[in-house]
Amino acid sequence: MQRRGEGRPAIAASSRIGGAAIAEFEDEWRHLCRAATRDEPFLRPEWIRIHLESFEPEARLRLVHARRGDRLVAILPLVEEKARWKGIPYRRLRSASGVHSCRFDLLAEAGEEEAAARAIFDHLASIPGWDVLELRDVPLGGRAERLLDLAAASGFSIGTWESMRTPYVVLPESGGMEALRRGLSSKFRANLRRRRKKIAQGAELRLRRFDHAEPRVLEDFYRLEAAGWKGRRGTAIAADPRTRAFYDRVAAFAEAEGILALYSLERNGKPVAMHFGLASGDRYYLPKPAYDESFSSSSPGQLLMEDVLGDCVERGLHVFDFLGPQMDWKMDWTDRVLPHRWCFVHRPSARGKALYLARRKIGPWLSRRLPRGGLFGG
């Protein structure tokens, strides 16, 4: 009797170095996304390439991948670089992601996660020279967590740091928007009615959705976002050419994939709140919202949220994912959050052990006793 798995080739992992590796693997990578447990835009090759070309064009990419025979079953895009922590130099492998990446994880074919993670960890352990593996914003329950379990079992020191808790709304399968509203507080529902009546007084309110990356619509969004507190703090998309290029390219990619969902709540034809959104599979993702602060007393951002949620329910979507950190305005709509963590694996070398000890033991002690910047000036 043939046992399960007998006769199948074992999973083996290896690496490709350099940005050209993304193009080399792109077709297989995209197929792997469709075969994964959850296909999220942030794990697709286009998203990783856009991030690197926009923010880190000189980064040294190490594309770690695993195959069962000729079939790609897992991929982990990393950046190889020198770094410093509190003045301590070290070499690291880190996720090919950043502040605008939303989340990161090991991408693996459904049913192959365990074997693929083991093959990838064994390959990582065989790579000489690195001291720390750093993966940012891995969702709780993500496949990358298995790498930490395998590392700990092999004598590597591991650590995690909770980076954010992302709110999300589970959309009702029946009952429509009224079913969702029943889950909100009566005070919040009353505030929505009052604010909608106030902003609509003497004006026409209209919700619009754009599935194409129209330059005019994108300009409206960037201008609206920069007109508020983000513009004053210099953190708006339009304040940084690299960030602007990133979102322009994400919009073009999302349009090509059929997942772009730009929403605009217009008052007499002028946007008062907008979403730079993505609708992929059964989920709506909100990388960036914006609203006109001159109408803040009417909370146009929350009124747009109500309209977009209603549209998502009508379209049969199952989850509204706010992305980013927990905020009060998001929690008006839900009591559910998905924790995200930075995950660290320290190699059991002299430098790896020293850095782990410094971070785990000395770091917190120093932060309580020394001026900002620490003993080594950050």
Total helices: the number is 12
Provide the succession of SSEs.
Answer: EHHEEEEHEHEHHEHHHEEEHEHEH
Radius of gyration: 23 Å
User: What percent of residues are in strands?
Assistant: 25-35%
The rough form would be described as elongated
Strand count, sense and barrel status of the largest sheet are:
13 strands, mixed
Q: Unreliable segments (pLDDT under 50, ≥5 consecutive)?
A: 365-378
The average pLDDT value, as a whole number, equals 92
Class based on secondary structure composition and strand pairing: alpha+beta
Number of strands: 13
Structure description:
- The chain has 378 residues and is of the alpha+beta class.
- 38% of the residues lie in helices and 29% in strands.
- Strands 1, 2, 3, 4, 5, 6, 7, 8, 9, 10, 11, 12 and 13 form a 13-stranded mixed beta sheet that branches.
- A hairpin with a 2-residue loop joins strand 3 (71-85) and strand 4 (88-95).
- Helix 6 crosses helix 10 (300-314).
- The longest helix is centred in the last third of the chain and has 20 residues, at 350-369.
- Residues 365-378 have low confidence and may be disordered.
Describe the secondary-structure layout.
Layout: E1 11-17, H1 20-35, H2 45-55, E2 60-68, E3 71-85, E4 88-95, E5 107-108, H3 113-126, E6 132-139, H4 145-153, E7 157-170, H5 176-182, H6 186-200, E8 205-210, H7 215-226, H8 229-233, H9 241-257, E9 260-267, E10 270-280, E11 283-291, H10 300-314, E12 319-321, H11 328-331, E13 337-346, H12 350-369
Helix pairs in contact: 1-2, 2-9, 3-4, 6-10
